[in-house]
Amino acid sequence: MAHTSPVSGYSSTGQIRLRSLLRAIRNSNVSVFYQTPNLIYSWAENLPDFWHLPWRPDISENELMPKDIASQLITAKNQLLATGDAQRLELSFPDKKNPRWYEFFIDGDRDEEGNIIGVVTTAVEISELKHREQVLKILLREVSHRSKNLLAIIQSIAMQTARFSGSVDQFLQKFRGRLHSLSHSQDLVTDSNWHGAAFRDLLFSQLEKYIHPKDPRLTITGQDAYLFPGAALHVGLAFHELIVNSASYGALACEHGRLTIAAELEPDGEGEMDLIIHWKEQTCPPDSTDHPPDIPALHKPQPDTSRFGSAVLLRIVPQAVSGTAHYSIKSDSVEYYLRIPHRNFDF
């Protein structure tokens, strides 16, 4: 496959140097071609194997390369011969699986007067570099897309929190809490290389500030489903709203409260399985001495859907996961159901 120029006429040191350079080329991803000024090939070194062409010194450009590539190379070589300026091209060769990319450097072999007496073409394979560039572009587009989605979520949280806040201090307190919640969920998604987050990891990341996982008031059962990124971020927000309410007025606010969180699979009626998240609190009776203040006024028989927390639970999160939700608040209990279709999780 490799064809070298003769070494006769060189000194012993020159011959050793030439042989060493040729050996180095054979061990690299570099190919070298030499042509006369009328573009007749004289020799080539380290011709790529995938071309599978029998080499001969007078082979034509169109025999050696695909016609479209040969045309571009001939144009570049004629430009060199006309102007004396070296040329550079990046060209893609079809292959069985993926295209093979080469960077071509075309320069003149000059005599002592500076006249071009030959054309030297160096081809360096850059397929791996091109593949990395493509992967990087895909990743950057994905990061851009997800960043825009995240910014849209943050904007919605800011606007809705402001809408239902009576003062700047109240807004800042609630907004910071929701941002921290989103941040915890985002960390899990990022750590998984944007694949998502496990149900229990997501839940514990939101709970850890309020209750120890081994607290006897807390029971977690069911499937540890893997939520995909969009679902993970929104379910994390739902957990945050439920936990803050529970820590302020519900089961986590009293010594003898009980909180059970279950994640179970349920047929959707079309041969697929949906994930059902069931949040159930048993709070203390209104007349209990263990009950936090103002519970009767806050725990109305039906949720106040005009509040942002209820909007998150009943509208924003279900819509984001293409599911459904039910939220029930009674004097001594709180229940929340969220149905998540199979396309938003794995198990």
From TrEMBL:
Coiled-coil stretches: none
Q: What are its E.C. numbers? A: 2.7.13.3
Please name the taxonomic classification of the source.
Bacteria, Pseudomonadati, Pseudomonadota, Alphaproteobacteria, Hyphomicrobiales
Q: What GO terms are given for molecular function?
A: ATP binding; protein histidine kinase activity
Put simply, this protein is called: histidine kinase
- Which transformation does this protein catalyse, written as a reaction? ATP + protein L-histidine = ADP + protein N-phospho-L-histidine
User: What UniProt keywords are attached to this protein's entry?
Assistant: ATP-binding, Kinase, Nucleotide-binding, Phosphoprotein, Transferase
List each copy of the Signal transduction histidine kinase HWE region domain by range: 142-224
- Keyword Transcription among record annotations: no
Instruction: Note one Pfam family from the annotation.
Output: HWE_HK
| Transmembrane segments annotated in the record for this chain | none
Top-level class of the enzyme under EC nomenclature? transferase
Task: Report whether Kinase shows up as a keyword of the record.
Answer: yes
